[in-house]
Structures are given as structure tokens and as C-alpha cells.
């Protein structure tokens, strides 16, 4: 009797460890927490920053530090997860996220804020690279597209709930509690990952190092990079400049602008798992990627031509679906490139790096063009870029013979 219960507990824990669905839940929780806390700053920081004497330019820098750290650390963290295993990186990333979030709550200087944002970006590089690699390690390749789509849907949910939670906590609990409560939640998720016996891939000390550029991978990797940068760059342009356009053209209030962005996020939440399932069952990467980019360009043109705000919201909804269709297939494709080399950490370190490049370049490109062209012209230029990229992707997918 004394040994039967521990044996049953070990059996139950091993069953959890062997379940790809349990691992999917853990990865979704990790990604959701990262995006939830990322979004907390959006309604809170502009109200609190003036107390520290922080101007608009400094606010931009503090927000940009996250993308910069994601850009710098994603590949190193992915490679490190290939060496030491996925779970240690995920747990460390979540505990760093908790630390960074708590630091925001106690920040009294600009230096504290920049340090907190820096740690938050490093934690995201660790959790995203190792978490997505863990999915690729444990999921049946025939269902990887759908699983990745579900994981990415957590981004949309966190994007929607983060600003809402931040605004409510700030209003009713105060600045410090706004960050201490999510910090405790992030630490709890990290401890949950530590508690579940996740079986992860880890290279032995004498094993060959992870291949950053497997043989014959240059062209497919470059094609994935172009698609990912195009999609994230679109978000990078829309996030700062669509609110300005909506306010200028339709006199949209902050609540209305938030609704339009919620429409974009909901479209991604709905479309990403469906796009992944379609890819898993039928392939069709040419139609999903090339067609998705072409449709994205068309949706932006429609948004610029819309004479009423509801029509613009419909076009934004279509844009969210189209961008999701283009992005999701790149994730199983990256897994295929690196699978035979045991380097899934490197694969999703690459994915995060490409995404961060577009997310960082989009606002800067928009800032350069905004001084010369009106916003509608900038959005139409973006539409043209997506259209050309869609055509090139259509041709490249055919040449690479992707399924």
C-alpha cells in the first residue's frame, strides 16, 4: 500500500509528460502570459510615465527595447535550448518575466524601466524559442501546423486581454499591484512547467553542435524569412500608425480604435488554427502563403478606400485572416528544415529573429516615410510591397516544391 500510491503518481505524471496536448497547454500558457504582460504597459505606462519625467521619445525607446532584445537573444536562446533542453529555458524565461514585471511595479527611475523591459525581452526570447521548439519536438509532424496555429492564437488572446487587464488593475488596484499580480501569475506558470515531467530534447556534451545553416537550406530559409518579415513588418506599421489614421479620418475615439485592433486580433485567433489544419491535411503552402500575402495587400487597399469606419473594420478583419494564412505555414516548414539536424531550438530562434526584424523595421520605415508622404500613401505602399512579396512567394514555393 505504501508503494502503490507513489507508483500511480509516477504513472500519472509520465502520462502527462507523454501527452502532446498537455505540452500544448503549457506552451499556450507561456505565450499567453508573455503577451498579456506585454500588453499591460499599453494603457498604463503613458499615464504613469509623466510622473518620472519620461517624454514620448523615451516611451518609444522603452517599448522598442523589447523587440531589440528579442532580436538579439532569440537565436542564442534557441541554440542553448538545443544543448540543455527546452524546459530549463522555459522555466528560466518565466521566472525572468516575473522578475521583470515586479521590477516595473517598483520602478522609480527611467533606468529601472529600461532594465525591466530588457529583462522582459530576454525572457521572451527564451520562452518563445524553447516553447515552440518543444512543440516541434513532441508533436506529430502531420499535426504541427494546427498546433502552431493554436499556440499563435494565444498571442491574439493576450493582445486583447493585456491592455484590458492593465487598465482595470491600474484603475482599481494602483500602479504597483498592476504588475505584482501578473508577476505572481507568471511565476506560477513557470513552476507549473517545472512540476510537469516534460520530456525534452537535449544534446549530449559530445554531440555535434546545432546546425545554424543545414546543407541546402539557404533558399527555403530565405523564403521563410521574407514571409515572416513581411507579416511582422505589417503589424509593425499598423500598430503605431493605424490609430493615427483612424483618428484623423474618422475622428475615432480611443475605445473605437481599441475595438478595431480587437477585430484584427480576433481574426488572427480564429484563422491561425484553421490555416494550420488546412496545411496539415492538404498542404497548399503556395495558396496559403502567396495568396495570403496578396489578399493582405488587397485588404489594406480596401481599408484605405473605405468611406465608413465599419467598412474599414471589415477590411482589417480580412487582413488579420490573410496575414495568419501567410504566417502559420512557415512554422512547420522551418521545423522540416531543421528536423533532421536535431536543431528545433535553432529553427524557432530563427523564427523569432525574423519576426523581431519586421516588428522593429516597420515602425522605423513608417517614421521615415511619414515625414514625406501622407498616411494613406504609406499604407498603399505597404499594400504594394505585400502584393509583390506575395507574387514572389508564389513563384518561390513552386520552385522549392513545398507541399
UniProtKB/TrEMBL annotation:
Protein localization: Membrane
Gene Ontology terms: cellular component: membrane
Listed transmembrane segments: 21-45, 57-77, 89-108, 114-136, 148-170, 176-196, 217-238, 250-275, 287-308, 314-338, 350-371, 377-397
A family per Pfam: MFS_1
GO molecular function, one term: transmembrane transporter activity
Membrane topology listed for this record: Multi-pass membrane protein
Domain Major facilitator superfamily (MFS) profile stretches: 23-401
Keyword set, alphabetical order: Membrane, Transmembrane, Transmembrane helix, Transport
PROSITE patterns per UniProt: MFS, SUGAR_TRANSPORT_1
InterPro entries membership: MFS, MFS_dom, MFS_trans_sf, MFS_Vesicular_Transporter, Sugar_transporter_CS, Tet-R_TetA/multi-R_MdtG-like
Protein name: MFS transporter
Provenance organism: Methanoculleus sediminis
